[in-house]
Design a protein that fits this description.
Helices cover about 45% and strands about 20% of the residues. α1 packs antiparallel against α2, α4 crosses α5 and α5 packs antiparallel against α6.
Length: about 325
Amino acid sequence: MQYDDPLADLIVFVRSSFGLDGASVLARTEPTDGDVAWRMEASAGSTPPGSPEEAELTLPLGEGVVLALVGGRLTGADRQVLNAFAAQLTAARERARLSDAAAQATELTEANELRTALLQAVSHDLRKPLASIKASASSLRQDDIEWSPQDEAAFLETIEDETDRLTALVSNLLDMSRLQAGVLQPTLRPVNLEDVVPAAIASLGDRATGVVVDVPETLDPVRADAALLERVVANLVENAMRWSADRPARVTAGRVHDRVDVRIIDHGPGIKPANREQVFQPFQRLGDRGGTGVGLGLAVARGFVRAMEGELIIEDTPEGGTTAVVSLGVAS
């Protein structure tokens, strides 16, 4: 367990105030092969004791914890003052322990809330596409009905579209789990946006055919992970398409000082400033139009962008709507 700076600061102050060669806070650990081991939690000086046996003076700081001192000439008055410092060290350890316990409790609470929201969202959002796939497949297998070629094509299109949505759902869930676990390790290198943006849009299939792209070929490369950046753009474009029913979504890019901003623009109803941070939280779908997904697209996108040392924010579209701005560093 690691403690905050106050414990280390107190040890340094004790050593310097009394002219000691070394001072340390030692905590007894579980015996191994019958021998008692000591863990050094904080220390100061050139020769801090590694065990009570190495110390010239020890003061108790709690069960199995001691302040070990070596060197210096301590008077009776000094020892009385040291008892006061020992009380301060005990209090510092207790505050650190409580702070650590509170942090662990907060992490556990957040993890439980995330798990609950995940189960609720998945149970809801998996049912609809699975039901559509099942209904379409069952219809095609009916022998007592002769479907027209147009009907069969419609059933197959439904199966394909809903399968794509399920694939996107599972991908976002896996991506969010990687972000939550802190195991995402992007490979940052120079990346050309004129390669990444078209690939991202192509990954969305025919439904992204109308997306307008304005990315200059002369634009400087950005420092990014190409695969992650493609996922970011795809998620943001898909979100923009959901809200740009009357006008196509647009993707533009340009350099701003030492950064390159990629802007994904929609012409929907927009998002109030007070709600803009909320949409980046997992499982948030403000005013969602019933689309499939557990509200992870924007959360995953921001997580990926920050992993690439960039930032993702939301702005107003001047003529109405929302613009997602991905800001990345220019590759040197």
